[in-house]
Write a structure and sequence with these properties.
With 397 residues, the protein is α/β, with parallel strands linked by helices. It is built from 17 helices and eleven strands. The structure holds nicotinamide-adenine-dinucleotide and magnesium ion.
Length: 397
């Protein structure tokens, strides 16, 4: 039996992971499930899936969960705090760690899984954006296996040659093409974007996801973070990674080779496919996803992204080219700006403005140690919060 820890079990990716695992109960066993504050949700998951451990980051929530489980007669041991996340990521009975916590909050536990040499199913792109070099070095040193779950990167992984030592150059790969749905405002004029509400931004046309990544998809910062993620995962230069808009979200990404071949991975937009692929690799298992019906899809469209309406994409390319802690600063400012937008304290088109100003004010430093990265992450959060507070006319609606 393969023991799996799901960090961020109550979220969109976590729930889909439990669904896939439950289909293959003879093969995978959920050893640990974690959540931030969603007591009822984690309680229901523990009753249904009976993990050995449950972690709640909030201590008061952990106590409540413990009470509920004891009353129900469920033996799951409850841990609390960030240290609880790290502990379950390292357990000897855990073979695979699904890293599906949203944002920088997932960094420590994902790194712990890398240090412990686990198979990491990586959904949490923010950890890699923040600490790409340290993370990849840790994976190499410990012999951990890194399998991308982000649908684009999982598609690229599937289209890449299996032997990639020595970087992209030796493999004949010339370019990585990330597809982007364009989110709910792909065709919206710039004037309209100013008035976008959190509800509109979270209504993604093709994917059902958590609120943070939904807003990132609407601003296209999600694609920007994914460009950075692709550079680290596949040892690619930023110029080797391109973005193409593809509104149907059927082609999940493509890899171009020196001989002119372009390989693509297709499927219905359902995260259970990349999750099942990463869980079972190199084998294939049923993910519960309907087969792709190309005639029903009818057509596949492509267009270039508009940099004027989606400045976040440019900011992400600039950050990865600048290097050092610039991507961590970009990520931290984005997390703060998205939270303010969801809380109606910041307009939609002010998100990239806050990020750009934060990057100007917090000059990036080298990202040689985790301490450097966390210091710039904290500085960026402080500056971004201040910028938001100072903005005229940003009152809570
Ligand atoms: P979500 O908001 O639905 O779930 C987030 C999970 O993280 C929840 O279990 C929550 O309890 C936990 N969490 C939140 N804050 C935390 C904190 N401070 N400490 C510990 N745990 C915390 O998010 P999601 O949509 O499932 O996305 C998770 C990650 O996967 C993100 O990094 C996202 O970019 C990535 N991802 C998601 C999708 C998708 O389709 N949802 C696709 C690709 C990549
Ligand atoms: Mg993606």
């Amino acid at each position: 039996m393969i023991g799996v820890a799901i960090l961020g079990a109550t979220g969109s990716i976590g729930t889909s992971t439990l669904e896939v695992i439950a289909r293959h109960g003879d093969r995978f066993r959920p050893v640990a499930l974690t959540a931030n504050r969603q007591v009822e949700r984690l309680f229901e998951q523990c009753v249904r899936h009976r993990p050995d451990y449950a972690v709640m980051v909030e201590r008061s929530c952990a106590r409540r969960l413990e009470g509920l489980l004891r009353r129900e007669g469920v033996a799951t041991e409850v841990l609390a705090g960030e240290e609880g996340l790290v502990e379950v990521a390292r357990l000897p009975e855990v073979d695979q760690v699904m890293a599906a916590i949203v944002g920088a909050a997932g960094l420590q536990s994902t790194l712990a899984a890398a240090e412990a040499g686990k198979r990491i199913l990586l959904a949490n792109k923010e950890a890699l954006v923040m600490s790409g070099r340290i993370f990849m070095d840790t994976v190499r040193k410990s012999g951990a296996e890194l399998l991308p779950v982000d649908s684009e990167h999982n598609a690229i992984f599937q289209c890449m040659p299996t032997q990639r030592e020595g970087g992209l150059a030796g493999t004949g790969v010339t370019r990585i093409l990330l597809t982007a749905s364009g989110g709910p405002f792909r065709a919206a004029p710039r004037e309209e974007l100013v008035h976008v509400t959190p509800e509109q931004a979270c209504a993604h046309p093709n994917w059902e996801m958590g609120r943070k990544i939904s807003v990132d998809s609407a601003t296209m910062m999600n694609k920007g973070l994914e460009v950075i993620e692709a550079c680290w995962l596949f040892d690619a230069a930023p110029d080797q990674v391109d973005v193409v808009l593809h509104p149907q979200s059927v082609i999940h990404s493509l890899v171009q080779y020196a001989d002119g071949s372009v390989l693509a991975q297709l499927g219905n937009p359902d995260m259970r496919t990349p999750i099942a692929h990463a869980l079972a690799w190199p084998q294939r298992i049923d993910a519960g996803v309907a087969p792709l019906d190309l005639c029903a899809v009818g057509r596949l469209d492509f267009e270039a992204p508009d940099p004027a309406r989606f400045p976040c994409l440019r900011l992400a390319y600039e950050a990865i080219r600048a290097g050092g802690t610039a991507p961590a600063i970009l990520n931290a400012a984005n997390e703060v700006a998205v939270e303010a937008f969801l809380d109606r304290r910041l307009g939609f088109m002010s998100i990239p403005e806050v990020i750009e100003l934060t990057l100007e004010r917090v000059g990036p430093s080298s990202a040689d140690s985790l301490a450097d990265i966390l210091a710039d992450d904290e500085a960026a959060r402080r500056v971004a919060l201040q910028l938001i507070a100072e903005r005229p006319g940003q009152s809570k609606a």
